[in-house]
Design brief:
Elements lengths: L7 H9 L4 E5 L3 H9 L4 E4 L3 H4 L11 H12 L6 E5 L8 H14 L3 E5 L5 H9 L4 E6 L5 H4 L9 H17 L3 E5 L3 H10 L4 E4 L7 E4 L1 H4 L17 H17 L3
Parallel strand pairs: 1-2, 1-8, 2-3, 3-4, 4-5, 5-6, 6-7, 7-8
Helix pairs in contact: 4-5, 5-6, 8-9
Amino acid sequence: MTLSKVTAADLRSMKARGIKIASLTTYDYPMTRLLDEADVPFLLVGDSLGMVVLGYPDAISVAMEEMEHHVRAAARAKPRALLGADLPYHTYQTPQEAVRNARRLVAAGAEVVKAEGGRTIMGQVEAILREGIPFIAHLGMLPQNVRAEGGYKIKGKNEEEREALLADALALDNAGASAIVLELVTPPVAEEISRRIKAPTIGIGSGPHCDGQILVTPDLIGKFPWFTPKFVKPKVSTAAQVRTAVEEWKREIQQQQ
């Protein structure tokens, strides 16, 4: 079990030492405590909470106030893990806006912030880092672009996409990103990026050769049975166990005299 507090700088150190980074999403106090007790070194309050907690159709609907609410809940667990948070859709369109909202997430308890994009948001990335706020990038399939792209699509399937992803990753690495999430990137391209940069890559649906992996926790534990990504194999069926427990309890009270 990790005894010392994990920092953003530790993520690069873990890659240098060849330690794979296990990462999961969290959205509340009890799950943060449980995942921290399982010694997961990086926990992310992701805007995926829009779908798996709030019932929205996608992450685009998540508001800044909702992110702050869930970050505060997770932070109350005081995890040893590094606690990150997503900047939600349209909250970092300019460097000034990015810094303002990154500060809000930090004030709520986040220790590192994450945003989607590469060279197109370098001004925002650099502004956040100048404020002394650690930053994690997100490349490949960008959930905040899902409506514009008409769904979740694999990236890096042609040379143009490969070159763009690599250029984005190198730019973010040089800027000082603590890590780069690679979502739905073809495994050969994810492996190449991982080899070419110093920052750790944290994959989700991008093959086994990234420097770490992240999953949406309800997907991992079968808590959101109505949709499971193809690349996820749930380790337990929490939803089925909850249904069974509730049905058993209901029968017990109905049988009471």
